[in-house]
């Protein structure tokens, strides 16, 4: 038998091939390759994925650094960026990201770095000028330099706290993805933006204000993300028949969603809501509009409010295509009826992910449903067992497990009735106790106690991480 030896495969590759591999790594990870050997020391400097992030150099206020020291650190950061750009050995690059607060204070340097990216013909440009520290003056937003609009080969553009001219975006003939955040943006601007970019497939709006409403109509758009945008009192209209991914987080507003037969993923998070409200029917109609989704994510607010819908507990049409359901929940008893609603209306569910998160619990929930009669709380001889639990549910993932009673009750139900359950994966919470003591051993012991529970599936594996 031939003797096995450890072979360094990379030693057989040319520098050009190694650089291609390095360019797939995040910028910070690419830098770490410089310590591997003398040969690798400077290879990473030719990476095609460039990221200059101020937060790596500048300590936040919470770290007890003074304003003067942060300014010094910021100058060191900019000196590093300029030196790195000035010695960059490649004629072209693929991606460029600059995260810098208050760029107006360093306008010349900021323009120089953006010019560097444009001159290298980057396909993806990401400029994040948000302010991470509260002591910096709230000045006007940085204006996207005019020369950027001449970069017709740009395919992806992300601008945060950076003003731009919508009318000039039609020069980006190849633009497929736009992400905007931290700016004032009217609905008419959004319409113009979508119409001016004929190849646009992905649109993300985060923390934008002054919208009033959002009305998006497109036959090409595939991905739409609306995150924590304010001033949407007039609602959201989505007329995008070929949309594949739709994600929304923020306050509950009226939705008008046209027929979307190809929707793959829908994600709704109304965690910003502070009142229970009479919104069950509004949420019910929203869910009915995304009936074709195969991956669905819902929040605690949805779980608590949906039982107040007039048509509860049935959804028409049901989520026949949903295979993966994610619940962002505290697994509080006031969420149990909402959890049942989704189990009942996802008859072919294969994967259930439960992300345990702090949630605002509305004790005044306006339904006639008795919590103490819920199937999770009743004796197992008198419960409703949903079709998906009996016939299709194969994987259950619990993230943030602490072993609290409400968590154990739900897991017990799934173990006891999950006839085809193949895997129960438990990721322990990293939360410490009020005194700062580590709780991992306590959480792990409670997770291991689940191994003693009676289970319906003989092939079930319980993994604890």
UniProtKB/TrEMBL annotation:
InterPro entries in the cross-refs: F-box-like_dom_sf (IPR036047), F-box_AtFBL13-like (IPR053781), F-box_dom (IPR001810), FBD (IPR006566), FBL13/AtMIF1-like (IPR050232), LRR_At1g61320_AtMIF1 (IPR055357), LRR_dom_sf (IPR032675)
Transmembrane annotation, as ranges: none
Domain FBD: 387-465
CDD domains documented for this protein: F-box_AtFBL13-like
Name this protein carries in UniProt: FBD domain-containing protein
Species of provenance: Rhododendron simsii
């Amino acid at each position: 038998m031939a003797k096995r030896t450890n072979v360094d495969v990379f030693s057989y590759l040319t520098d050009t091939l190694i650089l291609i591999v390095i360019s797939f790594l995040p910028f910070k990870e690419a830098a770490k390759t410089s310590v591997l050997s003398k040969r690798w020391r400077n290879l990473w400097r030719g990476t095609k994925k460039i990221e200059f992030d101020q937060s790596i150099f500048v300590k936040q206020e919470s770290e007890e650094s003074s304003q003067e020291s942060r300014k010094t650190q910021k100058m060191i950061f900019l000196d590093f960026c300029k030196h790195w750009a000035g010695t960059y050995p490649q004629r072209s690059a693929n991606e460029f990201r600059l995260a810098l607060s208050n760029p107006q204070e360093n306008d010349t340097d900021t323009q120089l770095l953006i010019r560097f990216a444009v001159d290298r013909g980057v396909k993806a440009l990401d400029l994040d000028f948000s302010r991470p520290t509260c002591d910096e003056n709230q000045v006007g937003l940085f204006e996207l330099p005019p020369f950027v609009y001449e970069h017709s080969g740009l395919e992806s553009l992300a601008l945060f706290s950076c003003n731009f001219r919508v009318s000039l975006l039609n020069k980006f003939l190849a633009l497929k993805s736009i992400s905007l955040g931290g700016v004032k943006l009217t609905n008419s601007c959004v319409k113009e933006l979508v119409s001016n970019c004929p190849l646009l497939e992905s649109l993300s709006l985060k923390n934008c204000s002054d919208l009033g409403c959002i009305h998006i109509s497109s036959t090409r758009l595939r991905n739409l993300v609306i995150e924590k945008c304010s001033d949407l009192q007039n609602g959201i209209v989505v007329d995008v028949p070929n949309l594949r991914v739709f994600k929304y987080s923020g306050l509950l507003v009226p939705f008008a969603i046209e027929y979307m037969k190809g929707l793959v993923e829908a994600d709704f998070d109304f965690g910003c809501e502070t009142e229970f409200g009479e919104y069950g029917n509004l949420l019910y109609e929203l869910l009915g509009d995304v009936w074709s989704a195969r991956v669905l994510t819902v929040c605690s607010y949805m779980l608590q409010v949906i039982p107040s819908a007039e048509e509860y507990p049935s959804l028409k049409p049901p989520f026949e295509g949903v295979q993966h359901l994610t619940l962002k929940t505290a697994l509080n008893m006031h969420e149990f009826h909402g959890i049942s609603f989704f189990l009942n209306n996802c008859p072919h569910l294969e994967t259930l992910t439960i992300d345990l998160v702090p949630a605002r619990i509305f004790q005044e929930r306006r339904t006639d449903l008795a919590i103490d009669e819920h199937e999770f709380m009743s004796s197992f001889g008198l419960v409703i067992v949903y079709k998906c639990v009996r016939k299709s549910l194969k994987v259950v993932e619990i993230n943030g497990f602490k072993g609290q009673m409400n968590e154990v009750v739900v897991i017990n139900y799934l173990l006891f009735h999950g006839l085809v359950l193949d895997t129960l994966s438990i990721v322990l919470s990293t939360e410490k106790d009020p005194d700062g003591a580590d709780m991992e051993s306590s959480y792990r012991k409670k997770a291991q106690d689940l191994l003693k529970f009676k289970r319906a599936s003989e092939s079930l594996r319980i993994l604890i991480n």
